Amino acid sequence: MNLQKCFTLQAFHFMGVNGIITAVHKMKMIKKALKLIGILIAALAAVFVLIMGDIWMYGNVDEKRDADVIIVLGAAAYESGVTPVFAERINHAAELLKQGYADQIILTGGVAEGNSVSDAWIASQYALEIGLREEDLILEENSTVTYENMKYSKEIMDANGFETAIIVSDPLHMKRAMVMAEDNGIKAYSSPTPSTRYISLETKLPFLFRETWVLIGYQLMRIARIEP
Predict the structure, then answer these.
(1) Strand runs (DSSP E) across the chain, as ranges?
(2) Which of 84, 109, 122, 224 has minimal CB crowding within 10 Å?
């Protein structure tokens, strides 16, 4: 074997060994990256579960006490009437009013697609049917989402000299609602509906997952100082 062939074989041998070392190094880097990704996913999952648990537990807390007004958060309504979910919220607010916790109720909700009147007005018709008086009710007719329920209710509170409010909604909605109430400067007390329409796990779990995602999204918007 001449000298040139010897050098060529040695070069190929070196390149082969170097290639194996490089491949092994890359595999180690990939394993480390996958491990870090796994840890990150596990951490995010843990945070998600913790927030979900907080939403669930908070929904079992009733902070009702004397306040200037009761704010009923809107739900779907049609010109033919309120949905069962909205009805339960109004029923609970009516009971709080009868027990003397406040003197008036703010019904929230603007004009939904397909309707010619506001959700708040539709809710007021149901409230009158169950025995409340017109003077018991204040209509907030501009909002379309929970944050706006709070924003426009705060304007009504300021206009009427109200300082405190009891917030009424379904249990799994209460955590996000109270965060948004605080962000809008409302001194609020949580009072979830005791007779929610979300009874079975089949109905509760989708609601709980949705609330968790929406709350996380809202908190990220808060950090970024983006108003909903």
Answers:
(1) 69-72, 77-78, 81-82, 105-108, 137-140, 164-168, 187-190
(2) 224
